[in-house]
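Problem 3 from the worked examples.
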Amino acid sequence: MLEFEYAKALAEIVWKENDTLEEERVKTLQSIFQRAWYYQERGMLEEIILGFVQKKTAMLQDAKTKCELQEISKPPKPIYNGNGFTPGKYDTEEEEMLVWSLTSLKAPLNSQAYYICQTYNRMGCKVCSSHKIEARDLYNLVLKDIQELAAQAMKDADMFYQRLSSRMERRYLVDASQTEKERKRLEARNQEIDGMFLSLYTDKAKGVLTEQRFMKLTAALEQEQEANQKRLHDLAVMQSRADAQESEVRTFIKEIRRYAAIEELDESVLNRLISKILIGKVKKVDGQKVQEVRIVYNFVGEIPEIAA
């Protein structure tokens, strides 16, 4: 089908007489169909791809200047103005759907431009409901969330760090000074116990301690030393996790600050920042329809909760 559309559009260009823009029109046509074939290879719906190419070819046939053709050949760059999604003059709604479907990589796009639950797709209604969200709504929510987080990170990185840390697992948050004090105390006690063992062996050899008394004392010391060793191991694991958490939070802050002036989403932004997006069912709260959207970021996990 795409081959037929390409041949038809190319023929219309060639049949035009005295067209000074013929070469530029052909280049624009090739650019449009290269993207169309790319979308087709990625398994996008043919109806949406056809809608995109038909609208674009109509634009290029009517174009009056080289500048117009250059703009028509460009992929869409949807703009979020704070309240809604605004397409460019030469963009098509169909290609915006296709681009967002590719860049999100989180859920399949259906013919009504919705993202539907992958669990439902894989396992059916016995496991999960068929809930969905409109592609543009999801695009706007994700972009707005990234913009707000980036602004907070730019305004006060230390405060933003505290906010992120407070949302991570509490058991990983440790007081480094208190941990070090406890570690030193336990290590000192274990050294003390080693000295006590030596003294007990000496007293036993001298006949000061009976065998029964010696066994009882050494068993108690061994039990205490084993408990101390276990606690030292736990402290080391906690400190390691705390260090890793701090590193991950700092890494995320560094990454999110790069997007302080972001105006659009693309594949590289999503892959760099986001691990997954969880979409809840639409619910009625006080007579209003509300849908929970949970964004799980790389390095730090879920931060705020937002609703559509």
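Problem 4, a separate protein:
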Amino acid sequence: MKIVQPLTGLSWITEIKENVFGSLIKLVAKYTAIAVISLFIGLYARVQYTVLDRTGSFVSVPTFQNVYLHQFLYAINDPTLDLSKFPKIKDPMAAMWWVNTWVMANIGQEDDEVVYGKSEYWAKASEILKNGRDDCDGHTILKYQLLKHMGFSPEDLNMVLVRVKGAPYWESGHAILRARVNGVWYLLDNLEWSVLQEPNPNYITEYYINEKGIKPYRVYGG
């Protein structure tokens, strides 16, 4: 049997101090660790759920999505659009090539600030045809409407928001059209005369948009 020696003198006070001090150290370390972890989780969530819009301002991802979906739906709601002068090409591959070539050849490249006096504006196809020039989102919207005119379903069309690899974030925003034929997705880009099969290694895809809504390619925050 173990014999417990009674504490003598001030040794018992020293032992109590050591025990209390040790417990306090452990408690402080525990809650410090919890606080640091919580801080990193908060910072991570802020970064993951916050993006730079095309003007270089920070906005929440839900706000970003709602703004661009609203702009897209506004642009394709175009009751005055008359595409009767354009052919209806039945072969979908031929239609894609024709649309991409026609828009590249007939719609100039110009910033929204010059054409509309706004830093960012997604124009309707009727406006684009009237002005004869627009930027990447204008080219994309016009191609979207022309392919619908030729028989493409909205389920087979997406306006795709991408980032150009290697460019500064606030200058890297770009829009292209994505079209599906026989289960294969193709890209119609205002920087490329050819119709290319997805993916384009020069881009980082962020969002797909059509009349059904907006879908993140990368789910921010998990």
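Solution to problem 4. DSSP finds six helices and ten strands in the chain. The helical segments are 11-48, 61-76, 92-106, 112-116, 125-131, 136-149.
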